[in-house]
Write a structure and sequence with these properties.
It is a single chain. Helix content is 53%, strand content 7%. With 246 residues, the chain is α+β, with helices and mostly antiparallel strands. It folds into two domains: 95 residues, Glutaredoxin (3-Layer(aba) Sandwich), CATH 3.40.30; 101 residues, Up-down Bundle (Glutathione S-transferase Yfyf (Class Pi), Chain A, domain 2), CATH 1.20.1050. A four-stranded mixed sheet has the order 2-1-3-4, covered by helices on one side. Helix 2 runs parallel beside helix 4, helix 2 crosses helix 7 and helix 5 runs parallel beside helix 7. It is globular.
């Protein structure tokens, strides 16, 4: 089915690229670990908006303490993003700012609240996967994630995509980007999980045809791999905590 549908970049996607040439007075800088975590969705959204960014990777406790001492972290947490002369914290706030700035947050208030509902559900699911490397009893948690994905989350998106190409308002939004990211994360853990969700699988195929996303999925891009022992060890040392997390 999806092979019969060709992807045409929406006008909003073209607009995004044009806006960036005017708006990018300063390069965006991401402060986080050299891994996915809560920064990865931000990387995805900036990539789709075709916004270039630099990264400062936290590797030592001293770096984190410096951010604390100079007042860069409002709630003593990362991710932190330098953009438009601001230092933004709190993942959802950062994502909403990027989505609003680059026309990825719907056309009106009703669009935005629906996008936010989809987005928060997807973030809930992705965070379950995100904390696995720091958890005990991983097999039980994987089983719980798979069950919730198949019974609670994926049916919502399968229904929403039964006709429309995009989730909300017929145009690309941050919710679409997050759904793509989430489906790829799920398939890493549960190959074949989308077999019973053909609309979601077709959506995934269409989204990967977007040029910026296609490049992001290639080796050597700024997309991060699944977390490994080095990533986990660095996070533990920077935050001065021990495994497993409660």
């Amino acid at each position: 089915m999806f092979l019969q549908r060709t992807f045409t970049a929406p006008q909003s996607f073209t607009d995004i690229h044009s806006q960036n040439k005017i708006a990018m007075a300063e390069k965006v800088v991401l402060h986080y670990f050299n891994g996915r975590g809560k920064m990865e969705t931000i990387r995805w959204l900036l990539t789709v908006a075709e916004v270039d960014f630099d990264e400062v990777h936290l590797t030592t406790r001293e770096q984190y303490e410096k951010l604390l001492s100079d007042g860069s972290l409002m709630f003593q947490q990362v991710p932190m993003v330098e953009i438009d002369g601001m230092r933004l914290v709190q993942t959802k706030a950062i994502l909403n700012y990027i989505a609003e700035k680059y026309n990825l947050h719907g056309q009106n208030l009703k669009d935005r609240v629906l996008i936010n509902m989809y987005s928060e559900g997807l973030i809930d699911l992705m965070e379950m996967i995100m904390i696995l490397p720091f958890s005990s009893d991983v097999e039980a948690k994987l089983k719980n994630i798979q069950t919730k994905a198949k019974e609670r989350y994926l049916p919502v998106f399968e229904k929403a995509l039964s006709g429309p190409i995009y989730l909300v308002g017929g145009k690309l939004s941050c919710a679409d980007v997050e759904l793509l990211e989430c489906t790829l994360m799920l398939e890493e853990k549960f190959p074949g999980i989308l077999a019973d969700f053909p609309n979601v699988k077709s959506f995934q195929g269409r989204m990967t045809q977007i040029p910026a996303i296609s490049r992001f999925l290639q080796p050597g891009s700024k997309r991060k791999p699944q977390p490994d022992e080095t990533y986990v060890k660095t996070v533990m040392e920077v935050f001065n905590v021990k495994l497993p997390l409660p």
